[in-house]
Amino acid sequence: MQMLDIPQDWLILKSELLELENNLDDSLLTEDLFQIKRDDFIIDSGWYQSQNAFMTYLILQSNWEKPIVEIRSFKIDECLNAIRLVILYADTLRH
Q1: CA angle centred on 58, ends 52 and 64, rounded to 5°
Q2: SS3 of 54, please?
Q3: Who contacts 17 (Cβ-Cβ below 8 Å, separation ≥6)?
Q4: Pairing with 92, which of 8, 10, 77, 85 sits 20 to 30 Å away (CA)?
Q5: How far is it, in rounded angstroms, from Cα 89 to Cα 66?
Q6: 45: CB partners within 8 A, 6+ apart
């Protein structure tokens, strides 16, 4: 499994998802697994039982009702790739 490299300009608020990379225990899956912040952007990822999937969101200016990006993933590798893509996309919106 590939590690997730988070750019230094992002502040890590939650990183439980990174700890699950090598120890995927279903009992540890919650909505609050990963969150990073930079400027007005928040990237949030977690396991949503109602969706039976990992969900990754890009939030602008704390507008949780209307995420800029919403990606559904069914495996942890897919979720990590979604986070990578969202980080890259947020970088394009910054400039």
Answers
A1: 80
A2: strand
A3: 4, 33, 34, 45, 46, 76, 79, 80
A4: 77
A5: 16
A6: 17, 33, 34, 35, 54, 55, 56, 57, 79, 82, 83
Question: What token pair was written down for 32?
Answer: 């609050």
Length of the chain, in residues: 95
- In the block, which residue shows the tokens 């704390």? 62
Please say whether the beta carbons of 49 and 73 come within 8 A. Answer: no
Contact present, 42 and 36 (Cβ < 8 Å):
yes
pLDDT tens for each residue of 4-48: 889 999 999 998 887 765 566 666 787 889 999 999 999 999 999
3-state secondary structure of 61: coil
